[in-house]
Amino acid sequence: MSWYKIYRFPLLASITWAVFILFLAVNFKQATVISLARKDILLQKKNSGVYGKFSFTLNISDHQTNNYSRSFKNYCISNLFLNLKKIENADSIYIAVSANQLGSKNQNKHLYYVTDHRLNVLEKIFHMISYTISNQILYLVIPLILTFILCTDEYKKDYRYINSLHKRLSDIAYSLIGIFILLVAIY
What we know:
Layout: H1 2-30, E1 31-37, E2 41-47, E3 55-62, E4 67-73, H2 84-89, E5 92-98, E6 109-115, H3 121-135, H4 137-150, H5 164-186
Parallel strand pairs: 4-6
Antiparallel strand pairs: 1-5, 2-3, 3-4, 5-6
Helix pairs in contact: 1-4, 1-5
Transmembrane segments: 6-28, 128-149, 169-186
Keywords: Membrane, Transmembrane, Transmembrane helix
């Protein structure tokens, strides 16, 4: 029982981060960067549904009837990465789209990011984090919710730690959960 009690919370917090990193890695693996001339595409920004004041959808269409789409949140840090004025005035744009949907007949394909210049590695990471959190959040929070449900004892004020290792691992898990929640909140 004590082994389970010591490692349950840190293990579930680690699983939350592992799921996030797995989704991030899959998105990186599937992304293909395409360069398109600005005159060959049509950019459309429209408010999304009922919650239009909180989010919008960016649609990019080319002459080959490919449609690339992504939703953005209006009041989040991920919006800082999207400069529509620069993109509208650029000669060519670079978009990252899902490679597994390039040849499919679906109406819209995943759009990871759109920029007016080639991105360096750090910019790609920030854009992919933005896409992963904005568009796959329901999958990402499942392990977080399970952590909250299965580890309710750890959040009580009068919780007693078994030993110093248990306290140290719990402190690390609290930090990991806090950083994850902060990341989701600002993106």
